[in-house]
Every structure is written in C-alpha cells, then in structure tokens.
Specification:
Blueprint lengths: L5 E2 L3 E4 L6 H8 L2 H4 L10 H18 L3 E6 L5 E8 L8 E6 L8 H15 L5 E6 L4 H9 L3 E8 L2 E9 L20
Antiparallel strand pairs: 1-2, 2-3, 3-4, 4-5, 6-8, 7-8
Helix pairs in contact: 1-3
C-alpha cells in the first residue's frame, strides 16, 4: 500500500520517493535536526535511505506510516510526519521532523494536525502518542498545541522519553468515529 496523499493549504503529505534522498539525507546529517530523534545521532546517506525504505515498508505492512512532507507551492521536501508502531514500540506514535530551514513557520503543526485527523477518522485509532525527549521544548509545545497531554515516561534508546497522548474521545469524536478497538495489524 502506498501512503495516501493528504493536503493542507501549504503542504502535501505523500509517499517517500527515491528522488527525496538528497534532501532527506541532508536533514538527517544535521546535528541540530537529529538531536532529539532516536539516539540523537546523525545518519549517513545510506542510513537515511534505509530509514526512507522503513517508512515506505511500514505503509505496506501495516497500512500506515510516515509521509514525506513537501511544500505545495515549490514541491520542496521539508521533512516528514506520520505514524510508527513497529514491534516493541510503546504504542501508536505520531512523530515529525523538519529540515532546520523550515522550523518556526508552523509547518510541523499544520502537517501533524492533518495526520492526526487521519489517525482518528480514517484509521479509527483510539489513542495516539508522541515520544518526546524532556529537553525538546519545541516538540512538547507542538504536542500540546495538538491537544496532547503528558501521560507518562518510558525508556527509549537508553534514555527517558516523555509520553504525550491524545484520545479520540478527547477531541470530540462521535461514538462511531475514532473509538474502534486497536488495529489487529499493529504489533
């Protein structure tokens, strides 16, 4: 399954393509961008490609995953947003990453809002989390702007991560939408 294409006023969320590698690898090679992602290490070009393949594979295996985010007006790749829940992961997570040149312009919030709506309305998820390093004030602010609240803490890649969470019922979902049991394809 390819990722469905979602659009906002300024952004297009779509499947990753091989042509995205140069831009995505440049984001992943930036220590400031990667500081709070995973183990906090930058990725090589080859590791960035493997990560893109992981994102594409997530869609094929589970029916959800990470979108490439591009500006609609220029077609420029600016980052990624979407869902992870591989085996061993704490829960169904929404995450985001933008190239540094695109920080502070509201793009992450805009992309995450449309993705979160997709999780509740199309995937019928009951709960969505964000795993955020305690020092990552920008992501905490973004999670709170999405309506997420602090729900706990877990160990992730050898250090603490805060668990921000939002429930379908907390966003005014009707009883028939967003309250289905967990997807049996989820690990």
């Amino acid at each position: 399954m390819d990722a469905p294409t979602l659009e906002t006023a300024r952004l297009r969320l779509r499947s990753f393509q091989h042509a995205d590698l140069d831009a995505y690898a440049s984001f992943c090679a930036d220590p400031d961008v990667m500081r709070y992602i995973g183990s906090g290490s930058v990725l090589t070009r080859a590791e960035s490609w493997r990560q893109m393949a992981f994102f594409v594979g997530h869609w094929g295996l589970l029916g959800y995953g990470i979108w490439a985010v591009e500006r609609r007006d220029t077609g420029a790749l600016i980052g990624r947003v979407g869902f992870l829940h591989p085996p061993g992961w704490p829960d169904f997570e929404i995450g985001w990453l933008l190239g540094r040149a695109y920080w502070g312009q509201g793009y992450a919030l805009e992309a995450a809002r449309v993705a979160l709506r997709y999780a509740f309305d199309e995937l019928r998820r009951h709960r969505v989390i964000s795993l955020i390093r305690p020092e990552n004030r920008s992501s905490i602010k973004l999670a709170e702007a999405l309506g997420e609240r602090l729900g706990g803490e877990v160990q992730l890649f050898g250090s603490s991560a805060l668990v921000y969470e939002i429930f379908a019922t907390g966003r005014g979902a009707s009883p028939s939408r967003g309250t289905a049991p967990p997807d049996p394809r989820s690990p």
